[in-house]
Amino acid sequence: MPNAYFIFFELVIYIQFAICLRHAIKHGAPNLIKLFAGALFGVLLELATIRQLNAYQYGRFILMILDVPLCIGVAWSCIIYAVMEFSDGSSLPYFTRPILDGLLALNIDLAMDAIAIRLGFWNWGQGLKFQYFGVPYANFWAWFWVVSSFSFGYRLVALRTDWIGKWLPSFFGITIGLTCVMFTNAFITFIIPFDYHTLTIAPVLTGALFVVIVSRPHFYQTQVDPLAFWIPFLTHFYLIIAGLISGVILDPPALLWIALSMFMLALILHRTSFQHILLQKSQ
Predict the structure, then answer these.
(1) Fewest CB within a 10 Å sphere: which of 114, 115, 203, 255?
(2) Where are the domains of the chain?
(3) In whole numbers, what is the pLDDT of the chain averaged over residues?
(4) Three-state DSSP class for residue 50
(5) Mean of the pLDDT values across residues 90-114?
(6) What is the pTM of this model?
């Protein structure tokens, strides 16, 4: 039976899914398809990656699909749905938005992964001092490509006004996303020598950030649903609280400062939504 930290982690994810589902129902079938396709994509990519790389394994959650927790697939769906909602409210050029989507996902994982392995949610098998507090740098490479490739595949046809644009974007998201993830996994693991991982990953992620910055995006150019705020907020908040209660976030103390920094960055990025929520509460 999973311990309380596992149970509440699953609960937080399913609450996030309910928030996204409410929005999807309100905005029509394509959004519903995108949300559920994201969950399918998440489960499939986890099953495929575990078998492709044999690099990590999950702890035992309540709901499992083979060796992958259902909540992990659902979490991918919520993250993808939320970051795309946010980037679609920006002034970024349409096909630059997947880059921002991937970077927004990293804001969550830079705080989450090192705490999660200390809580036993998953295990990289490298000890807690390996690279990024026990997390391989290649994990952040993978996070970027998982989210940006699904986003790109989805957007490839989403602007079409015919039946393809209405019913097939999620299919393209899953297909292109899985293809890209399997290729980039193989590239960083089997082609690039281990000693050159940092020299490969850092320029790609830095270049992605540079592209977004030079585009000088205006956020909240159009209305953004509060779900774009709630998904990162709930994840950051839960992990900080769970990390403090368990004490793992202080092993080492730098984890606490990183988690708080990523939390503050999320609040800054989503400050308009945050302010709107506070205003509604005060009325």
Answers:
(1) 203
(2) 4-282
(3) 95
(4) helix
(5) 97
(6) 0.96
